Amino acid sequence: MSGAKETPRQKMIGMMYLVLTALLALNISKEVLDAFILVDEGLVETRGNFEAKNNAVYATFDSEMGKNPTKTKPYFDKAQAAKKLADELVAEIEAIKVEIVERSGGWDENALEEGRNIPEAKDDTNIPAQILLLEGKGKVLQDKIIAARKKFIEFIEERDKETFKITLNAEDPPPHPELGTQTWTSFYFEHIPLAAVITQMTKVQIDVRNAEADITTYLLSAISATDFKFDKLEAKIIAPTSYILQGQEYKADVFVSAFSSTQDPEIIIGELDEEGKLIGEGTPLDSISGGVGKYSVRGTTEGIIKWGGIIKVSDPTGGVKEYPFSGEYQVAKPSASVSPDKMNVLYIGVDNPLTISAPGFPKEKVTARMVPPNGKFSGSKGKFIANPKKTGTIKIAVVAELDDGSKKTMGEFEFRVKRIPDPVAVVAKMSGGTVARGIMKVQQGIFAELKDFNFDLRFLITKFNMYYIPKRGDTRLIQGKSSVFSSEVKGIMRQLKPGDKVLFDEVFAKGPDGKNRKLNGIFFTVK
After folding, report:
1. CA-CA distance, 113 to 265, in Å (whole number)?
2. pTM for the predicted model, two decimal places
């Protein structure tokens, strides 16, 4: 790919520039300098031609934006960015050209009267070198040109970058066998008379406009690069769901597949015969945009509803072809389900997990609430937690969000709210009976266990009384304040003998609800 095709006159100007540059190495005569002025004037005219052609491309972009803004905008935005990049770089180069001329003595007044921009000091080699080399503006310009080239290339799709050519470049030239290594700035501007420097800079401006033309032409062609030509059309119906609730609206997109969105078809809803022909006149569908018809009807009757019609499309010859279509949807009464993950009872003081759904609705659209309010209820996306505070009966109301944003109660489900059952106090996992002396010697504490309960809950022993009743001797009472045995209790456990008895009484434990509960006593006989 490349920029606009050069005219014979443009080719001649370019050739003259190359010849004159070569002559500089031999002699800098007035005639050579005047020739550079002529070449520069020709290049300025060429630059104007590029700018005019680029403006024509931008006008085409504006036209495409009016026809199809959605499709055109991504390429339009890139083209505007390319234009801004080119305008800024051309202006930067123009500012340097003006500075060089003004600092070297300004413009030839006689030439200005004739409408020509000719520097007064055409042969000056000091000021251009001073500005571009010593003051470093040439290096700054070189960096900006390289950066601009990189940004231009970024507008190209990856698949096209290998074949896409951009003439704009400011890389350092390869080493010369006699002159050695030179920078881009020294190669083009060192020991070069002002007239040639100005001409070279004008040429760079043309390269910028040429690159701009390459990019914008490429982007303009990309707008229609993905368009397809079709030789087969087929009617289609696409609906978000074929299952709706009674009272809801059924919605569907009706369109011809592979059909251009710039031409709206005529869609008629009605009953079809066995050959796919419309029976009667049918009802025209009013809501059609971008080649897609929007069909909407409220579901009032429960069951499977069948519907259809024809789509009329203008063919390339100007005729009209008809394409039949048919579809169906299901209307159902409102329903919902609530499934307790543990059992059909809610317990006070704990997180009771619930899985809640409503057929025909995504889980993100389903919420629930506790009726009447009792403790905490939270959750989303099908998973909820109920943590009631009072015993009794409550209901879980399931609510679904309809397509129009309104809420509909899908059903209410009754639950009993109970206290967590009392745990059983145990020592050595036993709640009493005959126990071996060796087992008692190694016990570390008394614990509360929930027997046959589906929740993984913990009760902590808060206090207990332990009575040591030896076979011979007086009974001793030791009070505990936690589930862990004190050193005094452990000492008694180690000295137990056959026939001794141990009683745990006044055992209290605290559960997740924060309340103390009195538990069973434990009576052991040591063997």
Report:
1. 65
2. 0.42
